Amino acid sequence: MSGNAALGEAAVLSGCTCYFGYPITPQNELTEYMAKRMGELGRVFIQSESEIAAINMVLGASVAGARAMTSSSSPGMSLKQEGISYLAADELPAVVVDMVRGGPGMGNISPAQSDYLQATRGGGHGDYKTIVLAPGSVQELTEVVPLAFDLADQYRNPVIILGDGMLGQMMEPVSFENIKPPKEYPKDYILTGAKGRPARMVRSLLFDTKEEEEHNWKLVRKYQRMEQNEVRYETFMADDAEMIVVAYGIGARIVRGAIKRLRQENMKVGMLRPITAWPFPAAPLQELANTVHDFFVFEMSAGQMIEDVKLALAGKGRIHFYGRPGGVIPTPVELYRIIGRHYYMAARRKQQ
Amino acid sequence: MTTRTIFSGFGGQGVLSMGFTLANAGMLEGKYVTYLPSYGVEVRGGTANCTVVVSDEEIASPVASEPEFVVAMNQPSFNRFQNILQSGGLLCVNASLVDIASARSDIEILAIPTSELAEKLGTIKVANMIILGALIKASNIISFDAMIKNLAELLGEGRSKLIKLNKEALEMGFNYVKE
C-alpha cells in the first residue's frame, strides 16, 4: 500500500468521522482514498474549495465533537496555519497531515523536510505549540495515526503528522492489526445545542488582556505536560557509537542504509531518530552527549532540526551537518561517503 | 539477500506496473519489499522510473544508490541508469528501441527484442511483462511461480483473458533467456 493510502485506512480505523481536503501533490492519494472509503462507511468527506476552507471545516467538525482530519503539502500547509492557530487557541482536537515537498514558494513536488520549523514552532500566530509526529515508514504511519487522534483528544490540541512526498508515494507491505477501536474521551466542551444545560461558548477572542494572559499560561502548562510525557524517539546502533546521526522521517531511513555500510567498515556510527519532532527528544540526546562527542545532523533541508539539536546539546560536543534542500533525494551511498569523511576527521582530531 | 532494481522507460510503457508487479509478488512470497515510484510530472511519453527493493531482512532505505538490476525500456533511460548500476550488475534492455553500442564494459547486458516478441502475442502492450519475465529468469529475485500467482490478485480474479495474456508474456520472456 502507498503511504498515503495506508494513512487514510489508519485514520478510518482510528475513528476519523470527518475528512476535509483540497488536492495537492504529493498527498493526493490520501484524499482519493478518503473520498472512496468515507463514502462507503457513511462518514463525512468534503473536497473543499480551498485549504483554508478545509481547516475551518475541521474546526467546525471538532467543535461539534467529531474526530476530524485534513491533509495537505507545504504550500497548502502555509494556508492552513491561521486555522491551526485558532484550533490551538480554542483547545480543539484535530489531526493535520503535512506531506512536505520542496519549497519555498510553489517549490516543486519532490519530497523535502524543509517545513520542520513551521511544524514544530507553532507555525501560525500566537504562543502555541502542536505535537508533531514524524513517522519513517509506511508501517509506522499506522502506529502514528491512531496515536495522533488520541493525543489530540487527550490534550485537546491539534496534532501534526509530518511526512514527506516520498513517505506518501512509496509502497510497502502494511498491517493494520495494531490499531484498536478508538477510546472514548470526555467531550464536555463541545457544542451540541444547550438543551437542558447551561450554554457553552468556544472562542479565541479575549479582549481582556488579563484573561488572555491567563489563557496563555494555561496553554503553556499544557505544553509542559506534553514535553514531560509525550517525547518519542528511537535509537539505532547507538550503544557503542562514537558518532550519533540525528535524522527523522524518510531522512532517517536513508541514514539507516548509510550506517549499515559504515558499520561494515567498523565505523562506529549510530542514530537517534526523533519520532516526535515536538516535543523534541532533548533529554536522550543530552544523555548520549555524556559518552559521545560527535553529532551529525542530516536533513533534506538547509538546516532546521539542527537548531533543536544545538539547543539540546547546549554547547556540548561537536555538531556536524549535511543537508539537501529543494526536493533532492540523497542516496545511502552519498551519506555513507559524507558521514564516513566526518567520522574519519573526528577520529583524527581526537588523536591530536 | 537484498536486491535493488530500477525500472525505467517512457511513461505509458508500463514501467511503474512492472515494478509494482514485482513488489507485490515479492510481498506474496513473504519478503520485505519497498516500491518507490517517481511521481507527479510524469506523463505519457515522458520519462518514468521506479525503484523496487526485495529483501530477506528489513529494508533500510527504499532509495537505491547502486542497484544490482536495471531495466531500461528506452534510450534516455539506458543512458542515465547504466551509470548507476553496480559493477557486475545486470542491465535488461528493450533491444527494440535501445542502441547498446555505448554500454559499459563491466556490466552484463541482456537484450530482449520486446516489441518483436510482443507482436507474436498480438499486442505490444505486454512488452513490459516480457522483459519482466526475462529479468526474473536472469536474476532470481523471486520465484517465477510467485510472479504468476500474483497476476490474479493484481488484475482481478474475474479477468481471465488478461491474466492469460500477461502469463503468456511473462513466460515468453522467461523462456527467451537461456540458462
Report on the architecture of this protein.
The complex is a heterodimer of chains A (352) and B (179). Chain A is an alpha/beta fold. Chain A folds into two domains: 227 residues, Thiamin diphosphate (ThDP)-binding fold, Pyr/PP domains (Rossmann fold, 3-Layer(aba) Sandwich), CATH 3.40.50; 118 residues, Rossmann fold (3-Layer(aba) Sandwich). Helix content of chain A is 44%, strand content 17%. Chain A is built from twelve helices and twelve strands. Chain A has a seven-stranded mixed sheet with strand order 2-1-3-4-6-5-10, with helices on both faces. In chain A, helix 4 links the parallel strand 3 and strand 4. Chain A is globular, with a radius of gyration of 21 Å. Chain B is of the alpha/beta class and 179 residues long. Chain B has one domain: Pyruvate-ferredoxin oxidoreductase, PFOR, domain III (Pyruvate-ferredoxin Oxidoreductase, domain 3, 3-Layer(aba) Sandwich), CATH 3.40.920.10. Helix content of chain B is 39%, strand content 21%. Chain B is built from six helices and six strands. Chain B has a six-stranded mixed sheet, sandwiched between helices. In chain B, helix 2 links the parallel strand 4 and strand 5. Chain B starts with a strand and ends with a helix. The relative contact order of chain B is 0.17. Chains A and B meet through helix 7, helix 9 and helix 12 of A and helix 1 and strand 2 of B.
Short description:
The complex is a heterodimer of chains A (352) and B (179). Chain A has 352 residues and is an alpha/beta fold.
How would you describe this structure in keywords?
heterodimer, A: 352 residues, alpha/beta, Rossmann fold, 2 domains, seven-stranded mixed beta sheet, 12 helices, 12 strands, globular, B: 179 residues, Pyruvate-ferredoxin Oxidoreductase, domain 3, six-stranded mixed beta sheet, 6 strands, 21% strand
